[in-house]
UniProtKB/TrEMBL annotation:
Signal peptide: 1-20
Lineage top rank: taxon: Bacteria
Cross-referenced SUPFAM superfamilies: Arabinanase/levansucrase/invertase
Keywords: Carbohydrate metabolism, Glycosidase, Hydrolase, Polysaccharide degradation, Signal, Xylan degradation
Protein name as catalogued: Family 43 glycosylhydrolase
Protein family membership: Belongs to the glycosyl hydrolase 43 family.
Length: 701
């Protein structure tokens, strides 16, 4: 019997690729905008490239009961030359967060074609009929039972706590053959989800998201046995202070080290940390690159042959050429003209276009070769080579690199510099929780000055939806003060600092937390602050669906009682008020339509006082899209006058170029800040601004 077991073990090992043969990695994940299985490849476990142009590799409608799948986990089979994948059968965009009770089992012989089965736990097992959360399944091979074990987190109704359960799958991986049992129960009064087990040195390390204890985060339990005896370790392992979930851990090829990754779900990030002992982790985020935005996924080492097969099916020459990088490149603004096989790259201000030489990502199964001045040929095994032209241009828009929106601009007398205070964007459903500031001497070269306010810590009365700030500089008793008004949880707060970059101290409560009298719809968002040069009085404007104004008291952190007034100009008003004065006339500007609409744009009216009445000109368009150059969603702005000059600029956001227009409603969460010049006619009318890629020239000092 012993000899037979040794021989069987030898056969099992012989069917597995050795560590030396595993030179690539497959990342399975989903995204917040489309709950489906997606694949990405990497040569080194650090730099990942999406397959299939970042789209799904499996049809969620055909493999799931709900039409959506989340949290995919992939596993190489033991001794059977197969691959196993499991996922949550869940479509939150359609059905919300529950109840959901099913998981999807998938099996493949080549990673390309998959046999799938949806398993409804509540229907299959009457004793679990009360289940309302069946989440994040994973698979591991139980060598003792010679079966694949599926484990997941489950809650049996609102009165229960989330625990980790397990059951065994049949040989075909099409059904569960045992009644689920509890694998791990967290300490009393706490919950755990998103379990991930990895064996090391004869022990099983169970990673999971723990909540309700001394500190939420990724923690683990350890056992000598796969199915019992796990000892909880109350130590968070993630290398961030932000909330996380969806941990996944994998061993690096030809190394003793492991990488732990997790979903920083409230801030739209994915982070990575490295460890040699599974106890002490160091952040490696700066070394990791991805051309996609994953949610809860897993990574599996694969061979070059497997990677080449995946590339042959789902990698395109266009994806390879779009991996272009290089010094000075704006990475999110590359545009490929597929008809002309021409890649257009945008470089940061000050870049020397004549000296720019692109670099390209390395994909398994693909190569790229320079074949002349600005020409490159991409070859993928099994596909016809394609040659591309690569052109680079220096541009000043987007002005800030990355995803930001709702910019407010300030010239600070104290420092002689310009500052932009935006919404931090790139988060689904505008779910950012912090504010940043950027500084410049010339309106072209911007320095990231970092976070100035974090909801939930710096602001104790709100922890979500950090939107649309504005700021004003005032002298108080001979010293400069900065009053920063911001939206948080659809309320408006105010924080104060002695310097444009902070530190800012929140007042401790919202300044505006309810609708003005008579208003029955809309939101209390998008503040704008304005000081009337004629009277020295300061005013705050706000509103979505209505435009409100109130006078600020001398302390700038409270409103003059009874001064609130509704001054909505016309039916084109949506949000984003900005007020300025020129030649004794008060200009009111605002955004029309929804920020997710390609026709989001800016209009204006004129009044004789800072509280209206607003007269709307017949042709009152300030800023609109330019479809001819691919610029859409141009709105929510602020206006800057250069001190002492009749020189004006509009600072606004747009959809990301070039991807935004193809993102649907998600374009409204992926916006970029731009600056263009604004001019006036002789009669004081605003001449409609055409948005540009070029942007403005640097201001001379």
């Amino acid at each position: 019997m012993k000899k037979s077991w040794i021989y069987l073990s030898f056969l099992l090992a012989a069917n597995l690729p050795s560590q030396a043969q595993r030179n690539a990695y497959l990342f399975t994940y989903f995204t917040g905008n489309d709950e489906s299985v997606r694949f990405a490849l990497s040569n080194d476990g650090y730099n990942f490239k999406a397959l299939n142009n970042g789209q799904s590799v499996l049809d969620s409608d055909s493999i799931s009961a709900t039409g959506g799948v989340r949290d995919p986990h992939i596993l190489r089979g033991t001794g059977d030359n197969k691959f196993y994948m499991v996922a949550t059968d869940m479509h939150t965009a359609k059905n919300g967060w529950g109840p959901n009770t099913a998981i999807v089992l998938m099996r493949s012989t080549d990673l390309l074609d998959w046999r799938t089965h949806s398993i409804d736990i509540a229907k299959l097992y009457p004793q679990f009929a009360a289940a309302d959360r069946v989440w994040a399944p994973q698979t591991i091979y139980d060598a003792a039972k010679k079966q694949y074990m599926v484990y997941w987190s489950m809650r049996l109704g609102a009165q229960d706590s989330d625990k980790i359960y397990y059951a065994y799958a049949n040989k075909d991986f099409s059904a569960l053959t045992t009644t689920p049992k509890v694998l791990f129960t967290p300490p009393a009064g706490t919950v755990c989800i998103d379990a991930d087990i990895i064996p090391k040195d004869g022990k099983f390390h169970l990673f999971f998201k723990h909540a309700g204890g001394s500190k939420n985060g990724i923690k683990k339990a350890i056992s000598n046995k796969l199915t019992e005896g796990y000892v909880f370790q109350d130590k968070t392992l993630e290398q961030t202070t932000d909330e996380v979930e969806g941990s996944g851990i994998f061993k690096l090829n030809n190394s003793n080290d492991y990488i732990l990754m997790y979903d920083v779900y409230r801030n739209g990030r994915y982070e990575f940390a490295r460890s040699s002992d599974l106890e002490h982790f160091s952040a490696i985020n700066a070394a990791v690159t991805m051309d996609f935005k994953p949610r809860h996924g897993t990574v599996m080492p694969i061979t070059d042959k497997e990677a080449s097969a995946l590339a042959a099916k789902w990698l395109t020459p266009q994806q390879v050429i779009l991996s272009a990088g290089g010094a000075g490149l704006k990475p999110i603004n590359s545009y490929l003209d597929s008809a002309a096989n021409t890649l257009h790259l945008q470089l940061r201000p000050g870049s020397d276009v004549s000296k720019f030489k692109p670099t390209f990502g390395k994909y398994p199964g693909a190569s790229i070769t320079s074949v002349g001045a600005d020409k490159y040929t991409v070859a993928i095994k099994g596909r016809k080579p394609v040659t591309f032209i690569v052109k680079a241009t220096e541009t000043h828009n987007a002005a800030l690199e990355g995803f930001y929106a709702d910019p407010d601009v300030l010239y600070a007398e104290k420092t002689g510099k310009y500052y932009i205070y935006p919404t931090s964007d790139g988060f689904d459903n505008w779910s950012g929780t912090y504010f940043k500031v950027f500084s410049s001497d010339n309106l072209v070269n911007w320095k990231d000055e970092g976070k100035i306010l974090q909801l939930g810590t710096d602001v104790t009365w709100a922890n979500k939806n950090a939107w649309a700030p504005c700021i004003i500089e005032k002298k108080v008793n001979g010293a400069y003060k900065y009053y920063y008004y911001f939206t948080a949880a659809q309320k408006i707060g105010v924080a104060v600092a002695d310097h444009p970059t902070g530190p800012f101290k929140d007042s401790g409560k919202p300044l505006i937390d309810k609708r003005p009298e008579g208003i029955k719809g809309g939101q209390e968002i998008d503040p704008d602050v304005f000081m009337d040069p004629a009277t020295g009085k300061s005013y705050l404007y706000w509103g979505n669906g209505y435009m409100a104004v109130a006078e600020l008291q001398e302390d700038m952190i409270s409103l003059v009682p009874g001064s609130t007034k509704i001054i909505t100009p016309d039916r084109t008003f949506r949000e984003g008020t900005c007020v300025f004065v020129r030649n004794g006339k008060y200009y009111f500007t605002w955004s029309e339509n929804d920020t997710r609409d390609p026709d989001y744009r800016v209009r204006y009216g004129i009044a004789d006082s800072p509280t209206g009445k607003i007269q709307v000109p017949a042709n009152n368009m300030v800023l609109n899209k330019d479809a001819a150059v691919g610029l859409y969603g141009t709105g929510h702005h602020s206006i800057l006058q250069i001190p002492g000059k009749d020189e004006w600029y509009i600072v606004y956001h747009r959809f990301n170029y070039p991807k935004g227009i193809n993102m649907g409603r998600a374009a409204g969460y992926n916006r970029e800040v731009c600056i263009d010049k604004m001019t006036f006619g002789k009669d004081g009318t605003i001449i409609t601004v055409t948005p540009t890629h070029k942007g403005i020239d640097p201001l001379s000092k």
